[in-house]
Amino acid sequence: MMPSISALGLAPWQMAYLALCILGAAWVRGYSGFGFSALVVTSAALVTDPVPFVAALVMCEIVLSFGQARGVVAQIDWRRMSGMLVGASVVMPFSFALIARLGEDVARMAISAMVLVICLAMARGFQFGREIGTPGNLVAGAASGLANGAAAGGLPIAVYLAAQPVAAPVFRATMIAYLTLLCLIALPVLWWAGLLVGQSFMILALMAPFMGLGLWVGGRRFTSANPQDFKKFTLLLLIVLSGLGLARSLWGVL
Questions:
Q1: For a FRET experiment, which of 57, 112, 134, 229 has its CA 20 to 30 Å from that of 251?
Q2: For residue 3, is pLDDT > 50?
């Protein structure tokens, strides 16, 4: 039996809006390998408290990654990814503990601001000019662990990899594998912080059909579309959503 809408305390129009956002975000994830959670959490922040979605989105990332795992293993940069995971694991407990203690407006503000800053960095398209070694991987992972408190742990890694000479298939495969392992590590931390509750599984069940459809469509587009054009579209959408979420939070606080 599917969970009821009323159990989540959301109106039908809110559920319809979130369903469209989840479908679009899964399409983006299927295409680019990242962006799903950041799109959903910034979209949710416009109409409801985004904090209950954080744990559900971590589980969603695991489900989505397993759906994309076929055919990407050979392209994963395992050496780079291991350093990033170490850095993220150290920081994540502090990030989740902080987000769990914030009020709705402050949490929305923190999430929107974090996503906005990261996306603006991505939009600037800065480049290191060379591959970065283990210290850089650790720092990038720590930034990812911090951002994962806002369900946006993939964005700092996307910025970091995009700023280096990494081939598109390696970029996408490494992002998919990294997000899978990052979210598996995050689950016990979320439980410890009190963010992984029964409602999290209810949200996951409601999101699953829209995720599956969006992931399938997005995956079919990956081989035929221009990654640079779609990345620009995704970044623009994230910047708009996080800007609106930030404006709404400031209105609520003030």
A1: 57
A2: no
d(CA 251, CA 253): 6
Task: Give pTM, 2 decimals.
Answer: 0.72
- Kindly state the tokens that stand for 31: 């295409």
**CB count in 10 Å sphere of residue 222:** 17
How far apart CA 159 and CA 36 sit, in angstroms, is 15
Rounded Cα–Cα distance for residues 195 and 225 (Å): 37
Q: SS3 for 85?
A: helix
* Average pLDDT value for residue range 3-8: 49
Model confidence at 1: pLDDT above 50? no
Output the average pLDDT for the chain: 79
Closest Cα partner for 152 from 88, 66, 217, 63? Answer: 88
CA pair distance 185, 96, nearest whole angstrom: 12
Q: What is the DSSP letter of 123?
A: H
Contact 222, 31 (CB under 8 A): yes
CB 15 within 8 A of CB 44: no
Q: Read off the tokens for 248.
A: 């709404």
Instruction: Kindly tell me the burial class for residue 4, based on how many C-beta atoms sit within 10 Å of its own C-beta (0-12, 13-18, 19 or more).
Output: exposed
Cβ atoms 93, 190 nearer than 8 A: no
User: What is the chain's length?
Assistant: 254
Specify whether the CB–CB gap between 80 and 143 falls below 8 A: no
Question: What are the boundaries of each domain within the chain?
Answer: 12-253
